[in-house]
Amino acid sequence: MINNEEFQDEIGNNHISTNAKNPVREDAFAITDEEKIDKIKKDVENILLTLGMDLTDDSMKGTPHRVAKMFVKEIFGGLNPDKKPKASTFENNYKYGEMLVEKNITLYSTCEHHLLPIIGRAHVAYISSGRVIGLSKMNRIVEHYAKRPQVQERLTMQIVQELQQALGTEDVACVIDAKHLCVNSRGIKDIESSTVTSEFGGKFKDPQTKREFLDYIKLDTKF
């Protein structure tokens, strides 16, 4: 790990990941959610006080607790492996052998470099090799991996890998098109740009199959 502050700023400002897995410590779940909320509440309170906010004001009084609860229970809830959705699969009894696409899955995540929102849509597809998965489970898998400090490339890969494991096939693909508020609202402040990432496994590496998937989701980007 490089401790050079200038280098770390460059990594973060350019949104580069140095870890293919979410960098979570081994003792991350040694304390309860309520204990985490209590500790984070104090930290948020200190940040706001340092910024000069009056926490006796009715509007601000509950902010530290609200933020702490939001961090633990909501926007970073996907860090907890106990909250991972059960990816129930079923026998493909009707022998459907074509591509199944779940597109326009609403995605809310958080950039791990500036802790600002990533907002966009995920498009996921698979070709059954004998098992099928409930449609809502695909949405829940996207949501679970999005609810943690993330980089978009890693998130895209995690969604594909989770579905590959659940379905027992390499034939899974995911494309994410999202806006990063760390780009849109600070730094370069480009409100129009979005980031597109993709991960293609198995048959989706074939140009014709890949093109069919991209046609389904109406994405013109060339990969």
UniProtKB/TrEMBL annotation:
The keyword Metal-binding applies. It is an enzyme of class 3 (hydrolase). One of its GO terms (cellular component) is cytoplasm. Pathway: Cofactor biosynthesis; 7,8-dihydroneopterin triphosphate biosynthesis; 7,8-dihydroneopterin triphosphate from GTP: step 1/1. Its EC number is 3.5.4.16. GO terms for molecular function: GTP binding; GTP cyclohydrolase I activity; zinc ion binding. The keyword ATP-binding does not apply. Keywords: GTP-binding, Hydrolase, Metal-binding, Nucleotide-binding, One-carbon metabolism, Zinc. Residues 40-217 form the GTP cyclohydrolase I domain. It catalyses: GTP + H2O = 7,8-dihydroneopterin 3'-triphosphate + formate + H(+). Belongs to the GTP cyclohydrolase I family. This is GTP cyclohydrolase 1.
